[in-house]
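Sample log: Cyclopropane-fatty-acyl-phospholipid synthase.
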Amino acid sequence: MAGAALRLQSLFEQLLGAPLPVRIRAWDGSEAGPPGAPTLVVRHRRALRRLLFKPGELGLARAWVAGDLDVEGDLFAALDVMAGLVWERGEDARGLAEALRDPEFRAAVRGLVRLAGPPLPPAPPPEEVRRPRGHLHTKRTDRRAISHHYDVGNDFYELVLGPSMVYSCAYWQTPESAGGTLEDAQRDKLELVSRKLGLSPGQRLLDVGCGWGSMAIHAAREHGVSVVGVTLSQEQAAYARKRVADEGLTDRVEIRVQDYRDVADGPYDAISSIGMAEHVGAARYLEYAGDLFRLLKPGGRLLNHQIARRPERDESAYSVDEFIDAYVFPDGELAPVGTTVTQLERAGFEVRDVESIREHYALTLRRWVANLEAGWDAATRLVSPGRARVWRLYMAASALAFEHNRIGVNQVLAVRTPDSGDSGLPLRARVWSAPGRG
């Protein structure tokens, strides 16, 4: 159909009630929209059917993952200008029902239906997780969710994460150091965790959700501790064990495929949990905190590094992000940092320090996106075009979410303080400087 792009622009602006901030290129080659803006490429009418049958974020994500939608130009800029029209509008069934009472909105929907063609709902892309709801965060469902996200091939993670093989927020020393290497920033993060935990030779460290072994290796090699690292991913464990052997640390580092709930060989002097607690779930979080508390010696420290969401006015109405749940982290849940601190304290911990490193994660994600884009052809061979598109969208959107303070990440240092009350921490654990001075 000639002029499909102009028709789409008009219909979308009717639906959104605002000018479309991106340019559109339709399947017929036509273009419409502001010159110089990022271009939304609608490769197939099927993209419209996905949006009609699943309005909002999940429909857009399905069209993106399937390759029915694409962005030409700066992906970050495109997502940034579209966020206010899609992700921040809070679309739900009640809002859609209210919108459908508007005659102009209904007319725009009918126009999209005609433009989309036969009204058959397309099958979701194969990367989408399809499973019954309920009974979340059992050992079986957690193992399956972890496998979906992490057992996609270590070569793919090497391409995205780089040589450090650390899949959590790096630590950039100052804003000016954003031009430094990702590997240096990840090493600095591991060292920051080690120093907060007060690691010293002869201690035992439990690394919960040890990933590919980077924290375990750093702690053993640089601080002389003995480490047990646990993960639910078979591929991560195999990779980590080889790295440990290559470093000559098999006498000090043990990597297990084990649920944290099954660890029974405490007490430990310290526990690191870096980017793992997002998988625990709200219903299990107090149990998680209690398990780690019992595994520590009196005076032992926990460093809990965890992504946090902003609190809702009505927490009972909070829902899990549909795209993330379906394509990225099945059963993952984010909590406000205040909730995390409260649950740790309920389990018996004394929380001694909370450090927000939100801006650091945005910098880290932009480096991961750059790695993926630079190795795009290899990435699509290692996984699939759909899975690679999932990762590109998820990491770019997440970087923007951190930059705009929609989500954060915090390091919470907690102590199993003994009855004597001596936490073992210095009076001034951190040194602050004036704004703009480092």
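Observation: The chain has 17 helices and eleven strands.
Observation: The chain has a mean pLDDT of 88.
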